[in-house]
Specification:
The chain is mainly beta. The chain has one helix and two strands, in the order E-E-H.
Length: 76
């Protein structure tokens, strides 16, 4: 077999996936939190203000849709 070792320093995000015979690894610098426009509506319907500094405190969620019927996925 073949082994590939990638080492980096700093804050990076990576994504690896396989398409056919190709194995793709994407490495990009970790983005800073994007600024929201004052008065913009969030996904929860709340309005942001310039004085709010709330950050998401939940856990990340991952969905795996491999080998799942399309109808089942669309019901989410």
């Amino acid at each position: 077999g073949t082994q590939v070792v990638l080492s980096n320093s700093g804050s990076f995000e990576s994504l690896a996936y396989q398409t056919g015979r190709d194995y793709i690894v994407e490495i990009v610098p970790r983005a800073t939190t994007p600024a929201r426009a004052v008065g913009a509506t969030t996904a929860m319907g709340a309005t942001t203000s310039s004085t709010s500094t709330r950050a998401y405190s939940g856990r990340p969620v991952t969905f795996n849709f491999q080998d799942v019927p399309v109808r089942t996925v669309l019901q989410l």
